[in-house]
Amino acid sequence: MKKFVYFSLLVFLLTSFIYVRFLKGEVKKDGTDTDRKNYIGVKYEIGKGETFIQILRKSHLKKDVIDSIVKSFSKIYNPKKIDVKDQVFIFTDEDFNFRRLEYKNDPAKTYVVEYTSKYKSYVIDNRVTVSIEFLEGEVVDNLINAIKSTGENEKLALKFTKIFDWRFDVFSEVKKGDKFTILFEKKYIDGEFYQYGDIIYASFENDRNLYEGFLFDDGNGKFYYDQNGNSLEGTFLKAPLATYYRISSRFTSKRYHPILKKYIPHYAIDYSAPKKTPVYAASDGYIIYVGYNYIGGKTIRIDHENGYSSEYCHLHGYAKGIKVGKFVKQGEVIGYVGKTGYATGYHLHFAVKKNGK
Prior knowledge:
Helices cover 13% and strands 42% of the residues. The protein is mainly beta and 357 residues long. It is found in: Cell envelope.
């Protein structure tokens, strides 16, 4: 009963609305009125390696106009941060004079540059509604599929599994009949699903234990705590990747290497996983190595506190911005599963060392 009251209170407090979407011809928050019905609009999608200026040049605008657009746009967004598949809409009048640009990389926001008598830029926050929803279910084959079978998608499943990453391995320690519940935010734009918000409460129950996670903001950020007020976070993640099929090789002093054709120590754990599965930093730390070696392939090493370090091998590639000296947070994506180096299939070779051993 207490838990139901707690949930009801959260539903009331967390239901919110975010600004109103811009519609053709309406008066915007700055008091101006823009009617696009007589404009000619062209849509561009950012291609690999393309820049913001290159997109503007495609529209055959004059150089001084392009320079003015870039200057105005830079006040609200860094043009260097545009990415593949982002969308740019350019509107001109009947004489092909520039009138408006819209940049979209997120359904919740539209970045606008307009020209009437002068250039101006602003950001439109589209209407987002937040619904608090509840689901429960039972595992048949694995936890990810069990959550997806309720009608939700894999992103919610991965958010759920990350809550309990420090308590149990959600891939190897879950079995048929285990139960779960999730109270979560679901965001919509114009009635269409946009994205998942926070998971407010989560539980997982097997034949031995009941694990619960309550979301709480302590002023320094949002964290999950158990029913006794203890933090669910630990020093190292149980498994440093989003999902995997199985543990293909365990920690052992003697393992037959399928390529070298001999027995050698394997002081690590190999996780068999789909190609390009996101790999997480197992704990907070500084990256001390990013590179390639003929055995480990593409590799990342992270230096942690108290003499610990972690190693991630056979990667397909590195996450954007990963480089030596960068500080990464526990659970941050650092790379993607591959089979570079001495590897017969897609997997992550993961090792943790203490004082280099």
